[in-house]
Input
Amino acid sequence: MKASYVTLILNSTGGYFDKADVPSLYVEIQNHRAELERNLSRQLTFHDALFSWMENIFSPIMNEILSSLKLKLIASQKSISKVYFELYDKAEETDFRNLDETIESYIQENEVSVFRFMFSLFHPKKRAVEEIAI
Output
């Protein structure tokens, strides 16, 4: 991967990712590029694929992470980049057809973690959250 691509990816993703994340993001962009090229029956530049990926994949997911209180709580336990990658993987399973359903499903799968986070805010010395019947 070109060094200029690393810089471009890091700058394009708004500082939420670090260099260790770039290979995974690069693969996402290249997969998106391949899909576009199949659908359009022509080759695209990396810059064209990056722009399309930003508009159609990255931004919709990140906008949800940054605007949803539940996703913010989940991200406060993991990291924004980890939540992004988990949502991306989940959305990829459905070919990105219904992001709202994907996000709702992801939130439901992670609600216990959110509960643990909220509990730890109010009871920081108590570690045995698993003992509480939910």
